[in-house]
User: What shape does this take?
Amino acid sequence: MSEQKNSVLIIDDELENIKALRFILGKDYTVYAERVSKNAPDTVKRLLPDIVLLDVIMPDIDGFEIIGHLKAEKTTKDIPVIFVTGRTDSDDEVKGFSLGAVDYINKPFSAPVVKMRIAHQMRIINQMREIQNLSATDTLTGIGNRRFFNTLINQEWEGAKRQQAYICFILFDIDNFKIFNDTYGHISGDKALKAVSEVITSSLTRATDKAARWGGEEFAIVLPNTPLDGAWRVAENIREAIEKMEIRLDDGNVVGVTVSGGIRCIIPDRAGEYSLEDMFTDADEAMYKAKRSGKNRVCVAE
Assistant: This one.
């Protein structure tokens, strides 16, 4: 019995583009196509492909609107979307990434480039599935645990080293959590941990961005291919969302928590003079700097 192929859904109104991509990818993947842009979100929900190749310019609704629909749906929000475009406008590229796209493929198609970029995303998808088969979930919050995160970030670190790309690590700690537990009880503390984890995971729009419970009241995030300004925006959005969050206790009271965060972004050197453990240490020190500076803030490692 042959192993089931990974699948790709092409969303493009131009038949010639679909034919070209089928020719390039058809031997390695199961390839689907959708030419009617207004039907695209429903087609993705029905097929649940491993990757969506999405044309930017289409009638009815464009690619930017379609990805918005996909990211708003629980069943499709984690499917990687790669935009396909003939444009060279960097503003479009920035917009696409901000909406959650993981990559861009330019027209006219270069078969080796298309194959390489699809294969890279498929490796990530298949690795994630292998990881999920491990005992990788934190039983309280439902997100990845430390074991899951260590496996994932080691893979991302090696990938960033090979590609000489940025990798960012964010560490969050709930402020005054011992006092919170002593005041409201451990059941309420568990509610706070669940609520914080939900805010963090819902704030990550790219399929490649992952979070885990690092331990106790600490949460870790890895952002591959992300420079510092992008990581800062993600961290600040999370911090602000947690600050506004309301936690309803069993007695009817509504309480809140805040978090302090530390960020470390780097392009790993191939010589290995700076290690993954160094990145953890630097982010941890930045997080404690945020604590010392008054809490409920994010600091960047020196």
